[in-house]
Amino acid sequence: MSRRFLAFIGLAGFAVALLVTLASGRAEPTVAPPALPLRDLGGVPAFRPQASLAPVSVAAGRRGLGAYHGAAAWVDQYDADVLDDPYPALSEMKDRGVRTVFVETGSWRLPRSADFRDVEGASLAIDQAHALGMKVVGWYLPGLDDVALDMRRTRAALRLRTERGGRFDGWAVDIESQRVRPVAARNVALMRYSRAVRRLVGGRYALGAIVPDERSSTVAPGLWPGLPYSSLAGVYDVFLPMAYSTYRGHGSAFAYGYSRANVEFVRAATRRPVHLIGGIDPGLAGGEADAVVRGALDGGAIGVSFYDFAGAQNATWRALRRLAE
Description:
Elements: H1 3-24, E1 70-75, H2 80-84, H3 86-95, E2 100-107, H4 119-131, E3 135-141, H5 147-158, E4 170-174, H6 183-201, E5 207-212, H7 214-218, H8 229-233, E6 238-242, H9 252-270, E7 275-279, H10 288-298, E8 303-307, H11 314-320
Parallel strand pairs: 1-2, 1-8, 2-3, 3-4, 4-5, 5-6, 7-8
Helix pairs in contact: 3-4, 5-6, 9-10, 10-11
């Protein structure tokens, strides 16, 4: 078929899809947790020691930076069992040595009218975690195709006050949505949103950037090739790479090298502190969880966690104990 005819078919398909969306009265899809890959996503650069790693630039005095240190745990918007009654989970986290819990407030998948997936659950988690002496960092996954909507939800979360006057101790942005294409336009939208968040919180508030792993953010085709690390480092104070070794390979040696390489890559690219997110739990086998923690610490990470709490294994908790030693 000719290119002109193929282009006509593509435009016709887009028009039909648009009419169906408008007729349905909603632009957002029904809420469902993102599917996990069923296979390995490909190789990653081999671990290589970096003798001349760039020094980390820590923004002294930024409120909330301490929340990213040490062991942490993750609760996403689909963990209804936790959000309905946070205390048992938080108490277990505390007993396991967790210092900070990351609580997702929502994502672009929410209905347009909603700012939170579960505002009551988030409020309970804040108050109960604080009562246990733990920090709470809120996080949100922006679609970036509607920055005004993403900012409305971010503003609502950062202004949240519980019945006891509690609030989030920090804020992190989950940078992985591919709704904006091409990547160059996505980067523009990302920086527009990121700078708006920085203006909202001011210059003394520590912001975290949850970013794809090294391969996903540097190799094309990939999740986000060309992620603007240097520009992001001008906005965010700490980076949290989603270094899920279970998507890449298996074995303790692989998990160690992969985790360490990701920490060193992000530190060098941003000159900012790094908190490594390992996983996916419970897919980690044998000594892989321990290898993830050792690799992260040897690479210079200030903190380590595993995604997510609902799938945590005893081996994961034992590995995180290294951060308290």
